[in-house]
Specification:
- By secondary structure, the chain is α/β, with parallel strands linked by helices.
- It contains 12 helices and 7 strands.
């Protein structure tokens, strides 16, 4: 969220300066200056490796659930200080408590990924691997690198189709609202917010059409990042902190448990295929 690494957020954010491609020269120059300012503010203090959280969580609960994480740095957990604080670690423990089953976590998500890289993540899995539920969070890099929405969702759809062919239930966390990034000045931040919300809407439509469940992250957890940025963001003020991942996992958990058949109803901002969701 060099060239294609989300951790190199300044470079990615610089591209947001061209989101308003039709603006006048003076406006474009302003956006480029603001992108440079964001680069200086964010830096890359977190490196490019998230904590390794893959293991068998809560073994004593028995009857394991196989949980797969796909996507970008949010799915990988960059910004968390410990494995248990990553999105995967948080979800694994939440599933264990909610379903009273142990959880085998596998993270194929790669820091810096765009939607086009989901295919490579799936290709990295053993052919016989059959997750019970797969969680996908992707889209921030698509926005910052100006990937057309239609192209982004085409790759997402293909990933969902392959996962469902493997017998997995799929939960998609839509693109977070980039308007929450305080280091990015206005109007650049507003342009990023608009683009990320447009992508999130398109992701919701295509994911539901493919039979996946959807969690609208901008709705269910975005307000926490906007009103409590010091608590929700990590050192770079770009990726979630341990508390940010705790909130995000808590927000996504109802749809994950619903995908596993543990709960029947989900709250606002969660959407189920065929029923239109609940918000």
């Amino acid at each position: 969220m060099a060239s294609k690494h989300l951790t190199r957020a300044g470079v990615a954010l610089a591209v947001l300066g061209s989101v308003a491609g039709g603006t006048a020269y003076g406006a474009r120059e302003l956006l480029h200056r603001q992108a440079a300012q964001a680069r200086r503010r964010i830096g890359k203090p977190l490196g490019e490796q998230a904590p390794a959280a893959d293991r068998h969580w809560k073994k004593r609960y028995g009857a394991p659930v196989d949980l797969l994480l796909l996507g970008d740095s949010v799915a990988a957990g960059l910004g968390a200080e410990k494995p248990k604080h990553t999105l995967g670690g948080r979800l694994a423990r939440g599933i264990a408590v909610g379903a009273e089953r142990s959880v085998r976590l596998r993270t194929a998500a790669v820091v810096g990924s765009e939607s086009s890289m989901l295919a490579a993540q799936l290709a990295s899995l053993p052919p016989a691997y059959r997750p019970d539920v797969a969680v996908i969070v992707v889209g921030g890099n698509d926005v910052t690198h100006r990937v057309p929405v239609a192209e982004s969702v085409r790759h997402l759809a293909a990933a969902i189709d392959e996962l469902r062919a493997r017998g997995a239930e799929v939960v998609v966390g839509t693109c977070p609202d980039l308007g929450a990034l305080r280091p990015v000045p206005q109007p650049l931040r507003a342009l990023g917010s608009r683009a990320s919300r447009q992508l999130a809407d398109a992701q919701r439509v295509v994911a539901l059409d493919r039979g996946a469940r959807v969690v609208s992250l901008a709705h269910v957890v975005g307000p926490f990042f906007i009103t409590n940025p010091d608590e929700m963001f990590s050192l770079d003020r770009f990726h979630p902190s341990a508390h940010g991942y705790k909130r995000t996992a808590k927000a996504m958990l109802p749809s994950v448990l619903a995908a596993l058949g543990v709960v029947g109803e989900v709250p606002f901002g969660h959407h189920a295929p065929g029923v239109g969701g609940s918000g």
